[in-house]
Amino acid sequence: MSVLKLSVCAVLTVILMLTIKKDRADFAVLTELAGAAFLIFYVASYAAELSKTLMSLLSSAGINGEYLRLLIKVLFTAAAAETASAVCRDNGATALAVNVELVSKLIILVMCAPMIVKVAEFAAGLIGL
């Protein structure tokens, strides 16, 4: 049922956006952004519930929950960047869309740097360095 709600919300947003675009193109972009933000916040509630379930599962298995937190942060960063990039492309700002994608990839790399260091240390320990 929730997929149906999301789909109806997206279609209604597009219809509203196309209706507004005839008279005020600037408001059409704001409508698109508002619709995207609503969908992201709607899905975030499900992600929070999934995160709690996975954190309890990981803690019962004795696995550090920081990795799951990092994964969720990376996923939402990527989703936000993809949405921003798509909006930029839809409005003819291709160069800005490419920059958003590049910067988001660098931010994700910085976010993952501590995990990359731990994996490198683990690998070095396995080969005896």
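Above is the first protein from milestone M3; the second protein from the same milestone is given next.
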Amino acid sequence: MSESLQHQQLVKQIIAETISIVGEENKSLIATDAVDGFTLPPLTSEGFRPDVYYHYGSTLIIGEAKTSADIERLHSREQYESYIKKCSLYQGNALFIVAVPWMDHATINNILCKIKKKHPGNYEIKILDGIGGAI
């Protein structure tokens, strides 16, 4: 499926954030289907494929980019829950990164907070605001 330019830019932002966390030397271990030159991310047990996936040693990073039109869709909510569940069950350092346009920060934050209450655990959620920074 062809993704919008905005979606591709948000995915690239997640990749850049992931590289800043894991280091340039581990860049080749990042999986994404949105950018050429990377391997394909694995499916979750619910059958969803994240935009960005990194798993090495004791670190798991799952990244998902959403445009304004997709943030609140049922399919998107099911993806968030699947990825958060995977992070909550992980025995190590898990991080779920979501990149959205800056004006959608409050909406995605509310959705993710509700889902996180259903899946407690030792993991983090980071929202990238779509204009180059994390909130």
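Note on the second protein: The chain has one domain: 5-128.
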